[in-house]
Amino acid sequence: MAKIVKVKDIRIGEGAPKICVPMVGETLEQLKEEAAYLRTLDLDIVEWRVDFFEHVEDLEQVKAALKEIRSILANIPLVFTFRSAREGGKKEINAASYVKLNRAIAETGQVDIIDVELFNEEADVKTLVKAAHQHKVAVIISNHDFHKTPPKGEIISRLRKAQELGGDLPKIAVMPTNTADVLTLLDATRTMAEEYADRPIITMSMAGKGVVSRLTGELFGSALTFGAAQKASAPGQIPVTELREILTVLHRHA
Ligand SMILES: O=C1C[C@@](O)(C(=O)O)C[C@@H](O)[C@@H]1O
After folding, report:
1. ipTM of the predicted structure?
2. How far is the CA of 130 from the centre of ligand 1 (A)?
3. What EC number is given for this enzyme (predicted)?
4. Are 51 and 83 in contact (CB under 8 A)?
5. Distance of alpha carbon 56 from alpha carbon 62, whole angstroms
């Protein structure tokens, strides 16, 4: 039985998939407005995609912005994510800066989860997992392919590696070029969840073809799904209101 990952009052891995909504503001004012708006929505978790932030390379300004966001979000769990440009994000920073940023933010105690990309040096991934856990912060170990869908075995291999490295929530997002790719992601999710995972996993097939994978996590084994508020952070995210409605109907008939 896969364990539950608790972040504040949210139990990831129990019941219907949890809804995570990204903030993609570039300025502090935009982020404060986004955070205030997200408080009015029916969501479970907020993700700060800090790679969009104009001052992402100034740690003190990131910390100051985090303090404001944390205050506005109150008891809503917060994921801190720097998405690298090579995996679909807005910017690229070097490995040392990436580790320093994520470690410093984990140590603030103001985030509940950090997202660490699997395709970093293994030593850096392990360093961040250890630092996060020392400060009672959970870790998503993530991987993204914005160009294709790898074979089923490779998807499973990456999720298993993320689990072996101590990620509380292994995650993979892939791009379908056809509907068979969507079935590959769903089949890999099912096999990983049923045969290898001892913790919740997060998977999605992106863009319009992949929307079905963002809705059917309870059936195939993905414990969290991303929905859009004012602006999506990746192709295929649907409005959070529609997402909640569909997840509720599917959960009722599960
Ligand atoms: O990794 C993910 C998943 C995602 O790429 C998606 O496809 O919804 C959106 C990102 O903001 C998040 O960090």
Report:
1. 0.98
2. 23
3. 4.2.1.10
4. yes
5. 6
